[in-house]
Amino acid sequence: MVILKINKNMNMKKIIKYFPLLFLSLLFSSCLKTGLDELPAFSDAEITQFRFEYRWLDETSSQLRVAQLTTTATIDEATGSVNCILTVPEVGTYFPAEVRAQVTLSNIVGYADISIAAIMKPIGDAPKLGIVADYSKTKMEYEITAADGTSKTWSLNITAFNK
Asked: CA-CA distance, 107 to 136, in Å (whole number)?
């Protein structure tokens, strides 16, 4: 570590001259030590949960509103399938009847919880997660790739849509 000693005889130009050196020495120093343990890469490529929601713009308050759909997900790790039953919530203060009537499988947002350090991508024309998409399709498949490169194909089935 560089210690900069300033005495009464040192002028401002010298301080400015050494300041970049001090800054660079702090910038390029590291607190990490060599020889850290090598951690194994995760090999799980699983889906642990699936959720859905409906989003709309509330015209009266100019706010984006979100209604969570009750999702019962049956996950079969052996076959790589997720079967979901979706239930639209009842009318409420922030979920009016005219908005509830607009909720369909073709305009909801899906989310999945997957294994640590894994990535998920849709296969073919399966809907992308996290955006408004059409989940009324009969064949929806997703590939989960684990951190170690292991991959598994999962199928998503909406078995019931209760409104």
From this structure: 9
Whole-prediction pTM = 0.74
CB 94 within 8 A of CB 80: no
Domain residue ranges of the chain, discontinuous segments joined by +: 47-162
Strands 119-123 and 63-76: unpaired
Instruction: Tell me which CATH code domain 47-162 carries.
Output: 2.60.40.4120
Q: Which contiguous run of DSSP H or E holds residue 55? A: strand 47-58
Query: Token digits for 21?
Result: 């050196």
Find out whether 120 and 112 touch, Cβ atoms under 8 Å: yes
pLDDT in tens, 86-139: 999 999 988 999 999 999 999 999 999 999 999 999 999 999 999 999 999 989
Give how far Cα 161 sits from Cα of 45, 56, 73, 102, 104, Å: 27, 19, 12, 13, 8
d(CA 106, CA 101): 13
Nearest alpha carbon to residue 117 among 142, 140, 150, 141? 150
Euclidean distance between CA atoms 7 and 162, whole angstroms:
79
